[in-house]
Design the sequence.
């Protein structure tokens, strides 16, 4: 899996949860630009952040790693 695909999966799941990138970043305690950078594949994301994101989105981590 490429980092860009992970980011696309995150963007899709975030949209399905009706959350803005800004709101998600606040809920996980990150800077407002953080989610945009992850979704565009510009930065790697830590396991700790993945778990926080999944908790907020109410999904299992595997859902962010599924290839199309």
Sequence:
């Amino acid at each position: 899996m490429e980092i860009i695909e992970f980011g696309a999966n995150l963007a899709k799941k975030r949209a399905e949860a009706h959350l803005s990138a800004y709101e998600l970043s606040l809920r996980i305690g990150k800077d407002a630009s953080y989610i945009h950078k992850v979704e565009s594949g510009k930065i790697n994301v830590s396991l700790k952040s993945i778990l926080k994101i999944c908790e907020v989105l109410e999904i299992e981590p595997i859902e962010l790693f599924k290839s199309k």
Observations:
- The first helix runs from residue 3 to 16.
- The mean pLDDT is 95.
